[in-house]
Amino acid sequence: VTKAEIVSQIVKQTGISKEDVKLTVETLLQAIKNGLIRDEKIYFRGFGSFVNKRRKRKLARNIAQNTAIIVEEHYAPHFKPAKAWVATMKAQK
C-alpha cells in the first residue's frame, strides 16, 4: 500500500478534499520524523510507537572487496506495534 492509496482511501471514507488529506498525512509523517530526530518517543495508543533504537558497534564485511569494515554505534528508527494489535494479528493467522 502506498501513501497515495492511503490518501485516496481516506478521501473516499471522509469526503475531505484530496489536497487537505494529503497535507495532513504529509504533516503527520514530518512530525514523526522530526520527533525522532529530537530523540522523542512517539506513541499512538492501540497502534504502536516509534522510537530510536541503539545499534552497537560491530564488525561487518564488504563482500565486493572482501574486506572487514567497522560499523560504528548509531541509532536507527524503529516501530513497535501495540500489544493489542499484535494479538489481533496472531488470532487471524
Blueprint (SSEs and pairs):
Elements: H1 3-14, H2 18-37, E1 42-44, E2 48-55, E3 58-62, E4 67-71, E5 74-81, H3 83-92
Antiparallel strand pairs: 1-2, 2-5, 3-4
Query: How much beta, percentage-wise?
Result: 25-35%
List the secondary-structure elements in sequence, H or E.
HHEEEEEH
Structural class: alpha+beta
Number of strands: 5
Number of discrete helical segments: 3
Shape: elongated
Structure description:
- With 93 residues, the protein is α+β, with helices and mostly antiparallel strands.
- The protein is built from 3 helices and 5 strands.
- The protein has helices at residues 3-14, 18-37, 83-92, and strands at residues 42-44, 48-55, 58-62, 67-71, 74-81.
- The strands form 2 sheets. The protein has a 3-stranded antiparallel β-sheet with strand order 1-2-5. It has a two-stranded antiparallel sheet with strand order 3-4.
- Helix 1 (3-14) crosses helix 2.
- The protein is elongated, with a radius of gyration of 19 Å.
- The protein starts with a helix and ends with a helix.
What does this entry show, briefly?
The chain is of the alpha+beta class and 93 residues long. The protein has helices at residues 3-14, 18-37, 83-92, and strands at 42-44, 48-55, 58-62, 67-71, 74-81.
